[in-house]
Design goal:
Order of helices and strands: EHEHEHH
Shape: elongated
Number of strands: 3
Oligomer: single chain
Protein name: PhnD/SsuA/transferrin family substrate-binding protein
Number of domains: 2
Pfam families: Phosphonate-bd (PF12974)
Number of helices: 4
């Protein structure tokens, strides 16, 4: 049986950290390794833990994964992609960014947002930043 510490880093939304912790517990139960899970503190492409191959598992968006693997001497291997429930996901690992406004605002298009403040997910998020469709 292998020994040592198994390091997991989550670069994803902290509101699902409970789920990543559950995965860590399952790994611990099945491998008897010491498992540590932490939240990434910076952009994954700038994180020395990822760049210097010091982690064993990462919860990571697809765009940073692709960018990392284009330049990495030791690319990461994709193990799983979550499939969300709901008709719009078509039982596929696809993701959406939703633009949410207050119901009293009467804004219903991107053009209506001109001159307002806008916040977005993360510059490393393909669906929440890169792929927003401006019509």
């Amino acid at each position: 049986m292998p020994t040592g510490k198994f390091l997991i880093v989550s670069y994803l939304s902290p509101n699902l950290f409970w789920f990543y912790q559950a995965v860590a517990r399952a790994i611990r139960r099945h491998t008897h390794l010491e498992v540590e899970i932490i939240e990434g503190s910076c952009d994954p492409l700038d994180d020395p833990l990822l760049q210097n191959h010091q982690l064993d598992l990462a919860f990571l968006c697809g765009l940073p994964l692709l960018r990392h693997n284009r330049q990495a001497a030791r690319p990461l291997q994709l193990l799983a992609a979550p499939v969300m429930q709901g008709d719009r996901y078509q039982n596929l690992p696809i993701y959406f960014a939703d633009i949410v406004v207050h119901t009293a605002s009467h804004r219903s298009t991107f053009a209506d947002l001109k001159g307002t403040r806008f916040c977005y997910n993360d510059a490393g998020s393909n669906s929440g930043y890169n792929r927003l469709v401006w019509k």
